[in-house]
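[Archive record]
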Amino acid sequence: MRARHIALVTGSTSGIGLAVARKLAAMDFDVAVHGFESDEAVADQIRALQALGDGRIHYVRADLTDSTASIGLVQEVVQALGGIDILVNNAGIQKVSSIADFAEDDWQRLMAVNLDAAFHAMRGALPHMVAGGWGRIINVASAHGLRASPFKSAYVAAKHGLVGLTKTAALEVAEKGITVNAICPGYVWTPLVAKQVEDQARVHGISEEEVISRIILAPQPSKQFVQPEEIAELVAYLCSDWARSITGAAIAIDGGWTAK
């Protein structure tokens, strides 16, 4: 285990991923931030992350719908920062449609980002972690990795697959000083969700408060959004040595959704 951890967080220019990147940067980790925006578009975010701690911040641009870019992501981070100890597979996309109407291209795109990219990153990172005798892989799945909802077939299938991949990897490296876990959030308050609330209020002709209570948060008994910082704190704990016996777990952080 190196003196300063090197972490890659995919999908980390906004929402959950950005909150995780902020937390790890504040812990003085070297953090590779990933997105598909231009370097100029994320320059202010990178400077803000750099100001949080003493670690290095490196931005890597990759379109995870492209398997070649996905496969090369970890290698680029290793070349830039000198290794990888922590991998947070957070990138994800969504599409709502019935199975009968689900376009094949959309299915492939969701699988590429939500499941295939995590596999490629894990396959690239694990040899480095094994060689170093320490590692943490944290896959941001979803409550939909534990439960299903109608009209979300690709997302539910991918997130269930990600939970299964997590468990398999955990068993393979259980004696190598490496843990592999999945976090399964319910609805998290992010800019993307805020836009969905606004759009649904307009479409249904109801208030944003009604959209939140009657539609978005209906599955969550707490009737509260999960905050991105809550997930970031859980990631930080799973990266600690206190969490060395937690592996192969799918940890719900969903306001009680999956307790039902």
